[in-house]
C-alpha cells in the first residue's frame, strides 16, 4: 500500500481572495497519498512569482512518487538550510530533523557535512529526507547511498551525482531553486501568509516566522559569564534549527552540528531532558561537555539549567520573559553557564 499511488479528484485550481487580492493556486502534481496511504492528496502552487518548494523539479522518481509527508519534509529541510551561508544539510524524519550540520571551515566537504548531520542520530535517519543548500557532488551522493534515504533535495546536482543516484531504484531526487529568494529575518518582506486549516474548514492566517537573530549582538547576555566566540556560533546555529522544529523543543549542538534534539513535548524540561537523553543514547555522550542549547520558549524554572549543568552544557539561549527569570539566571551563574535572551519566541505547532 505504500507504493500504490491513489487516484484523486481534487480541483485543478484553487482561488483564495485575501484583502481583495485574488491568489490562484494550480495543481502542481498528484501526490502518491496524503499523510497516510488511504488519504488522496495533491500539491498546489501559487501562479507566478519565484517559487522554491512550489516549483520542485523531480529529476528522479520512484516508489510511486512523492507523498504529502515527503513534500512536508522537503519544505522543512529547506526551511532550515536556507539560514546558512555556508554549506548545510538537514536530515528530516516526520517534519522534524534527526540531525543538522553546517560547514565549520571553507575546506569542509559537503560529504562530511552530510555525514555529520546523519550521524547526529543515525538510527532516526533511516528512511529520511535529506535537504542541502548547495550543489550535491558525486562523493556526497555515494555517501548518501551508504544508508537508506527516501528523498534528496538540493538546489542542483552535478552529473556524477545523478549517475550515482540512478543506481537506487526507489530514491527520489528533487531540485529546488530560488532558495536565496526566501526571506529569513525580521524587517524583510515576510512573503506569503501561513494558512492553517482546522477540522471544520475554518482557517488561521498568520505572518510567517522570521527571526531578528543574525549576530552575537542580537542576543542579550544576562549572566556573569558571556558565551565564547565558538559557543555563540553554535548557539545561533541551534536557534535556526530550533525555529523549524515542533514545540516544545530543545536543540543541543556542538561544532556546528546537532547532538541531541527534543521535540513535541508538553513541557519545557522534558524537551531538554529528551535532547540530553538522545545525545547519550545515540552515541554523543562524549560531545556533551562544552555543548550549547537553544529552546523555543523561556525556562519557567531552574530545573532545566540544573539538568544542563549535570551534563556539562556550557551555554544556552532562550526567549526570556518568565516570572522566574532571576532564579534561572542565578542558577546559570551558580553553574558557570552563559545564557542569553533572544527577546523573541519561536513556537511552532505544525
Question: Can you describe this structure?
Answer:
This protein is an alpha+beta fold and 350 residues long. The chain has two domains: 169 residues, Cytidine Deaminase, domain 2, CATH 3.40.140.20; 126 residues, AICAR transformylase, duplication domain (Cytidine Deaminase, domain 2). Helix content is 24%, strand content 24%. It is built from eight helices and 17 strands. The chain has a six-stranded mixed sheet with strand order 4-9-8-7-5-6, with helices on both faces. Strands 12-17-16-15-13-14 form a six-stranded mixed sheet, with helices on both faces. The radius of gyration is 21 Å and the shape is globular.
Short description:
The protein has 350 residues and is an alpha+beta fold. The protein has helices at residues 68-81, 110-119, 138-144, 159-165, 229-242, 268-281, 303-310, 325-335, and strands spanning 13-18, 21-30, 42-46, 57-60, 88-93, 96-102, 128-132, 149-154, 172-175, 194-197, 203-206, 220-221, 250-253, 258-262, 292-295, 315-318, 338-341.
Amino acid at each position: 500500500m505504500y507504493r500504490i499511488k491513489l487516484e484523486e479528484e481534487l480541483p485543478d485550481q484553487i482561488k483564495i481572495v485575501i484583502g481583495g487580492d485574488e491568489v490562484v493556486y494550480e495543481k502542481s502534481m498528484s501526490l502518491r497519498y496524503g499523510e497516510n496511504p488511504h488519504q488522496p492528496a495533491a500539491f498546489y502552487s501559487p501562479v507566478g512569482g519565484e517559487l522554491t518548494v512550489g516549483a520542485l523539479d523531480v529529476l528522479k522518481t520512484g516508489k510511486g512518487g512523492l507523498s504529502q509527508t515527503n513534500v512536508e519534509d522537503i519544505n522543512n529541510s529547506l526551511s532550515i538550510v536556507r539560514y546558512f551561508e555556508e554549506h548545510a544539510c538537514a536530515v528530516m524524519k516526520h517534519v522534524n530533523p534527526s540531525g543538522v550540520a553546517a560547514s565549520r571551515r571553507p575546506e569542509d566537504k559537503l560529504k562530511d557535512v552530510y555525514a555529520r548531520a546523519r550521524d547526529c542520530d543515525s538510527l532516526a535517519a533511516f528512511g529520511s529526507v535529506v535537504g542541502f543548500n548547495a550543489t550535491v557532488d558525486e562523493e556526497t551522493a555515494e555517501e548518501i547511498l551508504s544508508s537508506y534515504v527516501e528523498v534528496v533535495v538540493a538546489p542542483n546536482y552535478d552529473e556524477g551525482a545523478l549517475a550515482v543516484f540512478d543506481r537506487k531504484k526507489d530514491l527520489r531526487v528533487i531540485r529546488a531553486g530560488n532558495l536565496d529568494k526566501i526571506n529569513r529575518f525580521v524587517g524583510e518582506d515576510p512573503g506569503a501568509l501561513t494558512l492553517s486549516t482546522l477540522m471544520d474548514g475554518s482557517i488561521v492566517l498568520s505572518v510567517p516566522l522570521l527571526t531578528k537573530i543574525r549576530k552575537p549582538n542580537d542576543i542579550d547576555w544576562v549572566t556573569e559569564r558571556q558565551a565564547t566566540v565558538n559557543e555563540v556560533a553554535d548557539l545561533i546555529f541551534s536557534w535556526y534549527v530550533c525555529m523549524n522544529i515542533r514545540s516544545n523543543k530543545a536543540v543541543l549542538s556542538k561544532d556546528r552540528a546537532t547532538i541531541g534534539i527534543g521535540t513535541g513535548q508538553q513541557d519545557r524540561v522534558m524537551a531538554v531532558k529528551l535532547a540530553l537523553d538522545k545525545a547519550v543514547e545515540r552515541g554523543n555522550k562524549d560531545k556533551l561537555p562544552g555543548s550549547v542549547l537553544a529552546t523555543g520558549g523561556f525556562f519557567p524554572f531552574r530545573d532545566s539549567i540544573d539538568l544542563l549543568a549535570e551534563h556539562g552544557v556550557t551555554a544556552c539561549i532562550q526567549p526570556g520573559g518568565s516570572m522566574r527569570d532571576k532564579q534561572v539566571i542565578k542558577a546559570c551563574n551558580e553553574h558557570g553557564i552563559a545564557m542569553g535572551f533572544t527577546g523573541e519566541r519561536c513556537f511552532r505547532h505544525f
